[in-house]
């Protein structure tokens, strides 16, 4: 009997030992794939910020983790070696939340740094490329946290002809040292960074972030009244309450545009074009050349065209395959080629279920086509440009922009366009062969399980490589269209998300701050 008891005890101890060893191995293996508290090293104040931004940061981290190891050879092969430095991902930023790990440790410190940057109005490389002139093209890039895409946008900008004559203003709504260092490493033109000061990051538990006493998005009005939550009296037109992660984008765009036109010292007398890009755009090398051509064509053929557009969201582009007209008879007819391209696109979508570019003939060529049509937000908001005159038109109706119950800045502009007293809707002149592409298939508004940044980027690179001999056209021909039903459909109401009176007041107050003197602040 004692022997049996002893054997049972030994068995139990062995089993417990094996179980402990297994647990230890599993914990060790999971350390590389789980965000531990020790890895993030958050101070209490920043921990609140992390919680408030958890969803967007997880999306950003997924994108970084998916693509950090695969700025693929396919992509790199089409990037000049001297520009690979902008695509370098350091190993320390792969395994953890890079947006939270580096840089300042609390919200107070981030606020101070943002204030110092905005006061200083530093223009990097101004000593190399000269001061900003009144007709300098300004490229305004709205930046969130999508570092992979931003790297490729910078690479595309670096390859653009005459980029050294521009000023690129990166407008951030998230302070991150890795992003800042990437932007400050740009050496091919003048660069400025501005920081949206009312971001969720620096207001993690108060408006404009999410106040703990704000009403839940889907709370019913009667329920919100009983809860006595902050914004109970101000649901949107669909009966929902505000979500900070959505309202921030419209606030940021409005603040950025006002900052550039009305507040910076270097733009006090600026009369040139401001091109609006986002971190997940990609530009063709002749986009500045095309901008000048569009401007010249508008001045000659369409003085009422206030907006220029270089991009499109279409996934099919017309491309001049054969420049010799005499050989057209030897190829399929245009209609047959279009049908063949459509059929190929459908076949590939069925096979791979992945996003793809298709090219059609006869648009990229020596004489390229542009279109003059009413401006529509969802079709002409990418790579679009306007000057101070147009901004002044917008400012005349700023109250409508800020009061319109739509969390989208572009639909709010469309509302202004359709309600300009005594004036027609904004007209746009746009490239039929686009020079700005959207590569951001992963992230905020895109929840694809199979999205891969490198795949999309390589497709854009190849398309532009194929079109290279047709870049820099000497002239364009303009076609005037009335626009389709979608262009001319009157906005009856917005998309909501903007019913909170606090959002409307913050928006209106942004334009009441005048131009600020440049302060010389020396950073250590």
Automatic annotation (TrEMBL):
Instruction: Look up the record and name the pathway of this protein.
Output: Protein modification; protein glycosylation
- Belongs to which family? Belongs to the glycosyltransferase 16 (GT16) protein family.
Main location class: Golgi
Q: Which organism is it from?
A: Galleria mellonella
Q: What class of enzyme is it?
A: transferase
Q: Which PANTHER family match?
A: ALPHA-1,6-MANNOSYL-GLYCOPROTEIN 2-BETA-N-ACETYLGLUCOSAMINYLTRANSFERASE, BETA-1,2-N-ACETYLGLUCOSAMINYLTRANSFERASE II
Where does the UniProt annotation locate this protein?
A: Golgi apparatus membrane
Reaction equation(s) it catalyzes: an N(4)-{beta-D-GlcNAc-(1->2)-alpha-D-Man-(1->3)-[alpha-D-Man-(1->6)]-beta-D-Man-(1->4)-beta-D-GlcNAc-(1->4)-beta-D-GlcNAc}-L-asparaginyl-[protein] + UDP-N-acetyl-alpha-D-glucosamine = N(4)-{beta-D-GlcNAc-(1->2)-alpha-D-Man-(1->3)-[beta-D-GlcNAc-(1->2)-alpha-D-Man-(1->6)]-beta-D-Man-(1->4)-beta-D-GlcNAc-(1->4)-beta-D-GlcNAc}-L-asparaginyl-[protein] + UDP + H(+)
Q: Which Pfam families match?
A: MGAT2
- Gene behind this protein: LOC113513512
Membrane topology value = Single-pass type II membrane protein
For this protein, what is the EC number? 2.4.1.143
Q: Which InterPro entries match?
A: GlcNAc_II, Nucleotide-diphossugar_trans
Keywords, alphabetical: Disulfide bond, Glycoprotein, Glycosyltransferase, Golgi apparatus, Manganese, Membrane, Metal-binding, Signal-anchor, Transferase, Transmembrane, Transmembrane helix
Per its Swiss-Prot or TrEMBL entry, what cofactor is needed? Mn(2+)
Record's Gene3D superfamilies?
Spore Coat Polysaccharide Biosynthesis Protein SpsA, Chain A (3.90.550.10)
Q: Could you identify this protein by its name?
A: Alpha-1,6-mannosyl-glycoprotein 2-beta-N-acetylglucosaminyltransferase
């Amino acid at each position: 009997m004692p022997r049996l008891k002893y054997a049972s005890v030994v068995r139990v101890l062995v089993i417990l030992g094996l179980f402990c060893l297994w647990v230890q191995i599993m914990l060790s293996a999971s350390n590389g794939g789980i965000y531990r508290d020790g890895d993030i090293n958050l101070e209490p104040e920043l921990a609140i910020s992390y919680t408030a931004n958890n969803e967007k940061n997880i999306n950003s981290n997924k994108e970084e983790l998916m693509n950090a190891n695969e700025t693929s050879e396919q992509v790199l092969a089409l990037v000049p070696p001297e520009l690979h430095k902008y695509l370098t991902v350091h190993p320390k930023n792969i395994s953890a939340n890079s947006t939270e790990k580096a840089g300042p440790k609390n919200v107070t410190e981030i606020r101070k740094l943002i204030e110092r940057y905005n006061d200083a109005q530093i223009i990097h490389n101004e000593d190399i490329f000269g001061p900003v002139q009144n007709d300098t093209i300004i490229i305004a890039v709205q930046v969130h946290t999508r570092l992979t895409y931003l790297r490729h946008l910078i690479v595309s900008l670096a390859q653009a002809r005459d980029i050294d004559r521009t000023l690129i203003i990166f407008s951030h709504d998230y302070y991150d040292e890795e992003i800042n260092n990437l932007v400050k490493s740009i050496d091919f033109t003048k660069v400025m960074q501005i920081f949206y000061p009312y971001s969720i990051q620096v207001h993690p538990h108060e408006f404009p972030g999410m106040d703990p006493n704000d009403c839940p998005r889907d709370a019913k009005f009667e329920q919100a009244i009983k809860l006595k939550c902050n914004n109970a009296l101000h649901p949107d037109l669909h009966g929902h309450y505000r979500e900070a992660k959505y309202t921030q984008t419209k606030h940021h765009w409005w603040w950025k545009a006002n900052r550039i036109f009305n507040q910076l010292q270097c733009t006090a007398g600026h009369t040139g074009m401001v091109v609006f890009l986002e971190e997940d755009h990609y530009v063709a090398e002749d986009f500045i050349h095309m901008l000048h051509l569009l401007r010249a064509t508008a001045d000659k053929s369409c003085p009422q065209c206030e907006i220029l557009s270089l991009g499109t969201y279409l996934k099919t582009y017309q491309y001049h395959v054969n420049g010799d007209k005499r050989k057209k008879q030897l190829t399929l007819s245009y209609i047959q080629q279009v049908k063949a391209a459509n059929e190929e696109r459908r076949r590939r979508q069925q096979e791979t279920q992945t996003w793809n570019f298709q090219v059609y003939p006869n648009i990229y060529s020596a004489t390229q086509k542009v279109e003059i049509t009413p401006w529509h937000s969802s079709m002409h908001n990418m790579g679009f440009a306007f000057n101070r005159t147009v901004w002044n038109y917008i400012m005349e109706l700023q109250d409508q922009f800020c009061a319109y119950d739509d969390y989208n800045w572009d639909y709010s502009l469309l509302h202004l366009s359709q309600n300009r007293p005594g004036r027609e809707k904004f007209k746009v002149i746009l490239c039929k062969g686009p020079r700005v592409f959207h590569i951001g298939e992963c992230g905020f508004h895109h929840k694809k399980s199979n999205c891969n940044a490198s795949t999309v980027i390589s497709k854009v690179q190849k398309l532009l490589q194929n079109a290279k001999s047709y870049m820099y056209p000497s002239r364009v021909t303009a076609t005037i269209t009335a626009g389709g039903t979608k262009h001319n459909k009157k906005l009856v109401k917005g998309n909501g998300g903007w019913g909170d009176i606090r959002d409307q007041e913050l928006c209106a107050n942004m334009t009441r701050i005048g131009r600020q003197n440049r302060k010389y602040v020396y950073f250590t």
